[in-house]
Design a protein that fits this description.
By secondary structure, the protein is an alpha/beta fold. It has 51 helices and 23 strands.
Amino acid sequence: MGEAETEKRMVTSLVMSAASPSKHLSLSPSFQRCAFASWVRENVNKKECCLFQQCIREDICYCGYSKEEHTDEAIKPEDFTGESWDKHRHLCEVPTDAFGDISFDGLGQKTGKYARVSTDTSPEVLYQLLTEHWKLSPPNLLISVTGGAKNFYLKARIKNMFHRGLIKVAQTTGAWIITGGTHAGVMKHVGQAVRDYALSGSSHSQIVAIGMATWGIIHNRDALVHPEGSFPAHYTMDIKGQGRLSCLDNNHTHFLLVDDGTQGHYGVEIELRSRLEKCISRKRLGTQAPDTGVTTIPVVCVVLDGGPGTLDTIYNAMLCGTPCVIMEGSGRIADVIAQVAGQPVSRVTIAHIRQLMKRFFGENMPNHRIIEWTKKIQDIIRLPHLLTVFRIGEDSHGDVDVAILQALLKASKIGESLGTESWKRQLELAIAWNRVDIAETEIFTEESQWKSSDLHWAMFSALVGNKPQFVSLLLENGVSLRDFLHDEETLCELYKNMPGCFFLRKLAKRVERARRSKRRMLERRVQGLPRHGETISMTYVSEEVRHLLGSFTHPIYPPSSREYHFNMTMEETSSSLSKDQAASLSPHDEPQRNFGRDLFLWAVVQDNKEMAQIAWEQCSDCMSAALAATKILKKMAEEGSDADEKEVMRELANHYEKQAIGVFNECHNNDEERAQKLLVRASPYWGRTTCLRLALEADDKSFVAQSGVQALLTQIWCGELSVDNPVWRVLVCMVFFPLIYTRFLVFRCDEVIQRETEKNEEIKTVENVTGSVLRTNTRRLDAARLHRKKILGNWSKLVCLYSAPQVKFYWNIVSYFAFLFLFAVVLMIDFQATPSPAELLLYIWLLSLVCEEVRQLFHDPDGFGFRKKAKMYINDLWNILDVLSIILFIVGLVFRLNALLFYAGKIILCVDFVVFCLRLMAIFTISRTLGPKIIIVKRMMMDMFFFMFLLSIWVVAYGVAKQGILIDNDSRLDWIIRGAVYEPYLIIFGNFPTNIDYAAFDMDSCSMNGTDPLKPKCPVLNENQTPAFPEWLTIIMLCVYLLFANILLLNLLIAIFNFTFQEVQDNTDTIWKFQRYELIKEYHSRPTAPPPLIIFSHLYHFIRLLLLRRPPVVCKEFKNELPQIEEEELLNWEALMKDRYLLSTQQEQSQTMERRILDTAQKVTVMNERLEREEETSSAAIMTRLARLEEQVSQSAKALQWIMENMKSQGFASKKAPPLTPSSTDEPPDTFKRPSEKEATFHVNARQCYYPNNGKRFPVPDEKVPWEVSFSSYLPHHYPKESKDSGDSVDGSEPEALDNYRNPGGRTGVRGRGELSHLGPNLNIDLVLTRWRDCGRSVLEYLAVWENHGALVLPGGPTQSADQLPVNLQKTLGKTVYEKLSEKLSEGKKISEGYVDDCRNTDNAWVETTVLNIHLLRTDEVLLDINNMVISSHGTLRWQEVSGRSRLASNQKDSLRKVAEWHS
């Protein structure tokens, strides 16, 4: 049931998405604000003081707020009487009163979102506020910008590069930028970068800049307070009057104002900001493939300037694994770290840091602070994979955005232990950021080796995420579409994750209809029958695509096995194949998969031009694919309702029509014969239809009008006759057919044989002249092919002559003229009461015409179906004239056979003769000269039809007014119409009336009372028996009418005709070529004999098809099924031509003027940047050289002083000369040491600033680690192990006892026992259990334990002696295995033993580890027990391959390496 419910929800969501444009609920803004305010008051709090106690200043509480800003309950509290103020007890949470929209006064009226939040607010609530209520899309990257909180100076170049790089990385990756939010320091620079981006207007997307500031230090914060929320709150930036407070930056988009209940204290937001960044970093990153692991949102810290607090931020961020990018040249702590980055840790000394601090901070720092900073800076540079220094003078980073992204990729590598997973994470990040440049330079290098299967998840993410550049890059680097789309489920997932579009809405409706249909069927069955949900399958996709392509095509995907099995029990209402069609499908007609086609179709139906172009280049049947795309897109545009979406579809359809034209022209120019085969071959990948048919269905007139297509149509038109035969010769041979045996007419077969013979003769001549025999084999092949060409016999030539469509057409013209002549003779001479023989012949002739029209209606070689065939038949104007003429003839014949209606019948037949004559114009459609003109006539007739509506307004207006003025109450309808319509219409052509003017009025031309049916009624007369109508009015009306009707409207009609002619003239040739196909196809399928003899052919076909049940003759001129080998060869050749076309297109584009200008501008920009960079680099190099020169002079002076002192004392062997190698420029003379001392390594984990369980160490720089080195300021913290009785006689509290135990690794910053069990060495055993994976001893494996925090460790633990296993192994391995391993302990190999750099070590307690290797043979019983434990441990115990990529800690990895060396 779970699966069915899931599928049902999916379909429901699809239907909702399909209906989303019209069925979204429209919520008023006021309702949304009320709902938002209610949610904020319920989930977001602020802090306020609940006990007012006056401090040193008058009326000021310890919280920093004045007495007036406290509530009455806080001023006179009843609960805290007699207590001293404590921020942990006397600050309480209440619902927040500051949230909503913030509007900054000033130019631009910038707006944003804000909320006042408590320091104890859950980060999940803040993330929900940002994403759900403030409608921010989840980020693909989080950029935390930190540094100087006060204003500092940045060089113009550094500032520009920072602004440009930060915005570029945020824009391209969809990142969030988090800062302190105030208008000062680094936050101000971030705001300026966001402002510059907004002013540039380069994109419609918004840069998200989130400011997390302390509520208690914000100037003018009272304007933000409103219990119900402010929409908006008007905030004024008063920089001059802010004092010690700070204003919010007006360029940030969102603000989280952190409140701890106090005022005037900076840095309150740091802890909540850290927790929010950590929460965001645990969220899932973007759109990932279903089979990939969970990759979280990466976080990067960007540092400009900064002080001690910034150093703490950097240190804590890097301890949490967050990479940091330091901007060199920004000042203070950023420059201090940049100076020492990349140097050996031994050179980062206390004296060196002191001088750097003095140099960049300009003041002397206390000694204990220098020691602490030195230790932290040493720890920072020990993590080079997390530290990136952006130096302007270096070309390795290019710009700030590249440096930020490279820092994240470098951090993701972590080490060799992750192996391919490291590359996978880097690639996933690059895809999420849509930075293909980073992927090319950092990921797809020679070091990384990818298999196609390794990149399938990346391909899926790039496709779903609409990243075409990544799709192209992945295809270039080994992704095989065959492997990727081999599983149909992958393609289904792509359709399920398709963005909302017209095709998806139609597909969802189809799925929903099928679901409803099946649900109704299930309701009629037994209730216990399991219900099935409907989801997207390729069957539904195939049905929808078949609907778009046309019902004449076959399904492009086979029915899915699951749906077929389910449909066996019920009627499939959504199936578009009838049972007869399904039964008629042979194995040869089964749909064939083409993986380039699958991806191309997926991209086309969602109107994705870039993705479709990439997929089209992968299609093997590219011309059919392009034409099918035009048909699909035009059909969707026809059915769609969104005007913009329809326009995009039409543009994309025109693009692929041009692509098809380009490929076809390339093919036709290379080989005409193969190009014509491509037009008429049945494509197995696109419903077994042809390119020509697709172009016709898509109305691709430009494609059909190409010379190659027209050459094919001309060849079909001429049949087996040569296209070079003059028309007059064909007409002569039609009458005197024996001339065909005298070479009077050339047949195509004879033409081919003659051409091949001439070619062979030319080759033979060249061989005789040159003496070359290289063409002999080719000539033999041509001779063999020539031999296969059969020479037509006498009877065959006669059949070919009269079966050619061209000849059929000419005979039908002759027949039609004879029919019209007979028809005219009957109407004018021989139309008797009793039908004469000539009239009977006319009836027989018409019967043959009727039979031909019926045959054309039902003849369906393309499989269109009767409905589409009838629609196509009616849409043809000539067919309408045929039907109209036949109907009129039948009606006239019926009337003619009735004595009472005899004359009426003749009149109808006469009118019918006019229609038959109009039908005669169809013969001109084949003419290249008159055919286009007929198209112009059709367009003009449509223009004239609409013009008549405009003209009728004036005709009726004038006619009715004239008739009403002149004639009084005429009851004769015929004369009313004559006077109101007919006479005004004749006036336009110059037949002016005489009854509107007294001078021309004649009483004899009219009837006084209207009694004479042959005369009009006279006008109204006055007493003098003269016309009473106002002469001046009727004359003026006539003049006005003539002015508008004759001059204005008629000239308007001429102008319309002229415009139509000019507009259509350029396209008439294309339209004529397109319409020419139907005429050629009609006469190709038409019987040979003309009417009335054609009736015998109809009888023959009727008997053959209906009585004898014989299949119709299949013609290959319009659709040809090629053998598989020939099909493959043809498609390979087409692919080669496509590549040539694409190459030529790229070359043409590169030569355009716009491209040249763009390339030149880009080169100038690069040269300018390089010159500026070299200028700064040269100045920096000079400064470095001067510093080194000063250092050398200083060392030379020291060396000379030493020589002089030794010469005076004459004790050359008593002292060692100081090294003359250059050292740091800032290192004083007393810091020179021996090289061995400088290269010495000390424990690192044992000196971390933070001791386990929230302890803190005294900072110990590297130079102060050895006990022999004096460290007078060393004051380590004392941490005994609490609440555990270790059983030792020494508990670590007596100072005299601690002096007996000294860590052999040196100082650690902590005294006492710490987290270890006792003072002194704490023994530990790491057990390395190994085995060979197979009998070939090819792969060595070791047993590892998977811990809860997601790390692999070797089994082991603390022990009292190295001769016994740790007791805790019983819980890990089981008692039985533990006992058996204890027996084999003596057989184990001791790999190493000694001191271990452990984070629990102190000055007086440390860990010493012994590594034992026990190798298990396949015959050992304990190996079987361990394997059983591995199976039953559910992943806790694992056999892992011994390799350099093992995911172990560094010390255990070293032990594993030694084990591998011993076994090798």
